[in-house]
Design goal:
The complex is a heterodimer. Chain A is an alpha+beta fold. Chain A is built from 15 helices and 8 strands. Classes of the chains: A alpha+beta, B mainly alpha.
Chain lengths: 372, 346
């Protein structure tokens, strides 16, 4: 469609949602063709915050480029960092100490909790309920405080280095996490009281934006988005890393594929994350927190691909090394948000413009993750 | 000669008019400031926050400061807007809110205008505001504003039916459209207690429908910020925005005052049948306290909705009215009529 046209020849209305719009959670631009309030077509326009992270990473050393991944999906910063560190460790065949693995897993699950809390808060806000926003942030604040004590940073952690952790965990880490778990288990039922069982919330979400299993597969959706459509894709189960192979947890699978199923998957994942942390938090082993890795890392020549499960889905790291230099020849990230966004057109076309907000909230987009 | 005589004759009336206009404006300003403050405190209480607490004691001057800020800001008019209609719209909205307040008795004999058709007059005046809202949406030359205004139009016109029907149930019970007579009819108990379940149903319908009338959550689609940024007043700023904002709160007060008057007896103290001694004790609490106390209770209910519920979708909103609330109101009205004819109420 032409740039400045607002009404087409056939009488459809063209509405630009974004780049600055409260429902897009960032600088994303959706160009929507409307027939009355019915969406005829929807086209995401990307590129507003492209920072060329992959290209920049080619001129950074392996230790430096980890911190760029915190700036992608900033709500899963720990898990993204783990993904890159994991690729480097497996390429170098480094044995990561047990203590580092345990702490990494705990922090990854705390990150997932924090991300889902923020998503829950924003979902409420998008659907017009302001109070969930504050309840979600109440619990997230505790987690970010724990992160701050661990690594001095609340959002873009950069705590994980190839071979383990940057620093040892502070004293009282386990007590703080335990206290948080006790509080949060009391708070989670409040989430259900306020939104999950609310009639209006059900009316806005049940049967809205249905994604079939085949579509989820063909769009490359992953994470809660795909699991709500019945597609089993949990990297923690299929390609275990860290300590996930030895832990007891369930992959949450639902089959409805609508907005409410995606909502339910995330809520239930929070319970699973709590379960995982509980298995580990009282058994953090003593010992080294970092394996011996050279200061200047050079990967052997070859191609490496590893994946981790972030709060939004499968995050893949693909590194080509020429074996000579201390920075990658080429690096490519497979970010979950980009593929999940691809399904937006299938979800929203033919629906009501009012449903778009609910659908966007249920995809759980983080724009810097889509637009790297 | 005759001119000066007529001036002298009309002088007291002119003075009285000016004084009442000043009085109404002051009442409005205080009402708006207080309700905004109350809303922020109620919201804070429900959201684990403190709310305004820096300007003045307990932050009571916060809304005054906000108002001064809004007044001193530029009222920006978009370049492509229809300038005259854009300017006119907020006045229509606020005038309709002002007029609707006139016949509501705040204490025995304290009322701006004692009119015989008060119960019809209030919704009639309140629904004039839709003209201002449509005007604002059209004149802004903004797609979000236009969609917001159209939604608002559909919503207000639909929900007026339920509001009207639930008001009628009290009119049938009392046989009068005059607010004073309705209050006096509750001398031996408020209608919500006297009228059995049908009156309770019409009270619930009234609260739901009037929440939709005043565009508040869960029916705040005209200004659904995650979809339409700010709906029909997206392009408004400064004092013009303040007028929309003030009229929203005045409308909320009117709705609550009407609910309090019709269902909770207005300024009438809490009386139980023929318990003369008990009723005498209750009479020691003055009428305005009863009236404002009841109105504030209903306002609290409406605020409670806002800070708890998510928002409906526009088609769900219209379905709720046409498929559920309207039929229920109609059937309920029959029951009220039956109760009145058979004299089953207390």
């Amino acid at each position: 469609m032409p740039e400045l046209e607002t009404i087409t020849e056939t009488g459809e209305y063209i509405l630009n949602v974004g780049p600055q719009h409260p429902a897009t959670h960032g600088v994303m631009h959706l160009r929507i063709k409307l027939d009355g309030e019915i969406i005829e077509s929807i086209e995401p326009v990307l590129g507003y915050i492209h920072r060329s992270i992959e290209k920049m990473s080619e001129s950074l050393t392996y230790r430096q480029l980890i911190q760029m991944t915190s700036r992608m999906d900033y709500l899963s910063a720990h898990i993204n960092n783990t993904g890159v560190a994991l690729t480097i460790e497996r390429a170098l065949q480094v044995e990561v100490p047990q203590r580092a693995l345990v702490v990494r897993t705990i922090l990854a699950e705390l990150t997932r909790l924090a991300s889902h809390q923020l998503w829950w808060a924003a979902t409420g806000l998008d659907l017009g309920a302001v109070t969930p926003f504050f309840l979600g942030f109440r619990d997230r604040e505790v987690i970010t405080t724990i992160f701050e004590e661990v690594c001095g940073s609340r959002l873009t952690m950069n705590y994980i280095v190839p071979g383990g952790l940057m620093e040892d965990i502070p004293n009282g880490f386990a007590e703080r996490v335990n206290k948080f778990l006790i509080d949060f288990e009391h708070h989670l039922p409040e989430y259900d009281q306020l939104l999950s069982d609310n009639e209006i919330f059900l009316a806005r979400n049940v049967g809205i934006g249905i994604l079939s299993k085949e579509e989820a597969l063909s769009f490359g959706c992953s994470g809660p988005m795909a699991r709500a459509s019945g597609l089993s894709c949990d990297v923690r189960k299929w390609h275990p890393y860290d300590l996930y192979s030895s832990l007891e947890f369930n992959e949450v699978l639902l089959t409805q594929g609508d907005c409410y199923a995606r909502y339910k998957v995330r809520i239930r994942e929070m319970y699973q994350s709590i379960r995982i942390i509980k298995q580990l938090i009282n058994q953090i082993p003593e010992g080294e927190y970092q394996a011996k890795v050279k200061k200047i890392i050079k990967l052997p020549e070859g191609e490496y691909y590893e994946r981790v499960e972030t709060a939004r889905g499968e995050f893949g790291v693909y590194i080509i090394s020429d074996g000579k230099s201390s920075n990658p020849y080429r690096i490519k990230y497979r970010s979950p948000g980009f593929s999940n966004l691809a399904s937006l057109s299938a979800l929203a076309t033919g629906g009501n413009i009012g449903d778009l907000v609910a659908i966007m909230a249920s995809i759980d987009l983080v724009i810097p993750d889509i637009d790297r | 000669m005759s001119l000066s005589i007529s001036l002298i004759t009309y002088f007291p009336i002119i003075i009285r008019l000016i004084l009442s206009v000043i009085g109404v404006i002051c009442f409005f300003a205080i009402l708006g400031l207080f309700l905004v403050y109350a809303e922020r405190k109620v919201a804070a209480g429900m959201q684990l926050r403190l709310g305004p607490n820096r300007v003045g004691v307990f932050g009571i001057a916060q809304t005054v400061a906000d108002t001064i800020k809004l007044i001193t800001k530029e009222s920006f008019t978009p370049g492509m807007a229809d300038k005259f209609l854009f300017f006119l719209a907020p006045f229509i909205v606020i005038i309709s809110a002002t007029l609707a307040l006139a016949p509501i008795p705040m204490a025995k004999g304290y009322q701006f205008w004692n009119i015989d058709v008060g119960v019809i007059y209030v919704p009639a005046m309140a629904s004039l505001s839709i003209i201002g809202i449509l005007m604002a949406g059209w004149a802004s030359n903004n797609k979000y504003s236009l969609i917001g205004a159209m939604r608002s139009g559909a919503q207000i016109v639909s929900y007026e039916l339920s509001v009207g029907l639930s008001l009628l149930s009290i009119v049938i019970l009392t046989g009068s459209l005059n607010f004073n007579e309705i209050v006096m009819s509750q001398d031996n108990g408020w209608w919500i207690f006297k009228g059995h379940i049908p009156v309770l149903i019409s009270f619930i319908i009234f609260i739901i429908a009037s929440t939709a009338e005043i565009n508040r959550t869960p029916f705040d689609l005209p200004e659904a910020e995650s979809e339409l940024t700010a709906g029909f007043h997206t392009e408004y700023s400064g004092i013009q925005f303040a007028m929309f904002f003030l009229s929203e709160y005045v409308n909320m007060f009117i709705v609550s005052a009407v609910a309090a008057t019709l269902f909770f007896g207005g300024w009438m103290p809490f009386h139980i049948g023929h318990w003369a001694a008990f009723n005498d004790i209750m009479n020691y609490i003055p009428g305005p306290i009863w009236f404002f106390g009841k109105s504030l209770f209903v306002i609290f209910l409406i605020m409670w909705f806002r800070w708890t519920f998510p928002r409906l979708r526009i088609d769900q909103l219209l379905n709720l009215e046409w498929k559920y609330m309207m039929p229920i109101s109609l059937v309920n009205l029959l029951f009220v009529t039956l109760i009145t004819i058979m004299g089953w109420h207390f």
